[in-house]
Fold:
Amino acid sequence: MWKRTYAPLWFLAPAVITLLAIGLYPLGFALVNSFRQYLVTKPRLGTPFVGFENYLSVLQDDSFWESLLRTFQFLLVVLPIQILLGLGIALLLYRPGLGLLRTITRVSLVIPLATTYAVVGLIGRLMFNKDFGVVNQFIGVFGIESVPWLGTENLAFASIAMMDIWQWTPFVALVLLAGLSMVPKEIEDAARLETNNPWTLFVHVQLPYLWPGLTAVLILRTADILKLFDMIFVMTRGGPGSATELISIYVHRIGFRVFDQGQASAQAIILLILVIVLSRLYIRVFYREVQS
Amino acid sequence: MAHTRNPRAARVLHAVGLFLTLLACVFPFYWMVATSLKSRVDILAAPPVWLFDPTLDNYREALLNQGVGPSLLNSLIVASCTTLVALLLGTPAAYALARFEFRGKRELWFWFITNRMVSPIVLALPFFLMARALNLIDSYLVLILLYLTFNLPIVVWICTDQFRGIPRELDEAALMDGAGRFQIFYSVALPLALPGIAVSAILSFIFSWNELLYALILTRSDTRTAPVAATSFMSGYELPWGEIMATGTLIVLPVIIFSIFVSKQLVQGLTMGAVK
Structure:
């Protein structure tokens, strides 16, 4: 009775049509534009088709590849730190005892997560200010000289990394805490009778329950960092030079400050293909591992 | 630390670890609020001052002279509308994905979810050109529509999971009683799915409230949202830090208070995909 019916069509149609119109149609439009010369500031030139010219110039554009490389460097810096800190926090929150402090700490994890990304950038800009920033005051306590955090290439990169770590470590911690809570009580208790060593307990009993969460963290964080725009745009605008110009910031600059929509569309399409390939690859590699 | 045999030392380390975590989470937020209550002189003091006479001047200036008030209202309008539309469109779709068998269901579900992975900048370029051609720049409509690209997948994702958890027998019993399919969805399934609907509404509202890139490109003055207003101070040489932080606080504080109240649902929604 539930099988052969057109009912699902009526339930699905509004959402599917909307998402086609706002999600897929613009992508098609971007694809078409990527084959055009499209300079917003020079409307008189029109928008003639130029074949693969935009793609060729993107592929030969060092700045594009550098910003992509920088994006992956950023991922390689922040993700391991977020996973290690997140794991530490999850274990602290999972450990019995200190009920009230544990509850307050767990609730406080929501603060970084709920903070507007742009405001995270504003706070970063304030705290890392070289003259009156609290970070320089803090390192001064340890006898380190004040440094121009946002004015030096490596330090600016470190600064945006620290703000990203502040905002997203709680997410990793909460995911891993949820994983830890999935370990059946009987198994954990039995293991505790066998061994006193927390490390053995972690590797053999708890870790297997954390893999799905870690996989999800890897996929979501990779996608997030390829998207990362708001915080960096507010904090450094990609500078100094192009030290913090991750891929989204770069495409934004070409599309909305250089106003070369053709070139920017080609970059966006390449970025889109990269995201799709990466997420498929991740899902194939890691989910198989989890299932086996 | 893990190898400490002494239970008292372990307890102290546990407390210290938790306290440091708490401090790290709260401090940047505290620093923003504190700065928003400082006078100009106190803000620019080097090294920073920790004790000061609080003042509300920055809030007065931001709200009365810098147009932050209307921008907060704009954010509220856009985030509420887009959440409402996402629920209206997304819950029936989620119900269908959870209840019916049809060809291409897995692919359809996957397509819904991958929409969340797409970088905003990829959609921002064509949307800007389309909105310009249709004269929709600086309108609520374009933002509400554009925010659906990430809200709708969230609603579909979370609610599909929620509907799957409702026993099928309830639907079938109602069908026996002669209820129509839409009636079953509306009066049987929907009320039971309220927890999941609430979770997805919370996430979708917060994500929309926090969004900057689309709003930056598609709004000018009338529909400028609060994050855009906060960043608009950033031009010029001498930055009005007090007003900037007051604006930041006005944007973030309501969301954080709300989030703390619904932290259980929020965490459930954020970690859902990761555990399953």
Summary: Chain B touches chain A through 100 residues (CB under 8 Å). The radius of gyration of chain B is 23 Å.
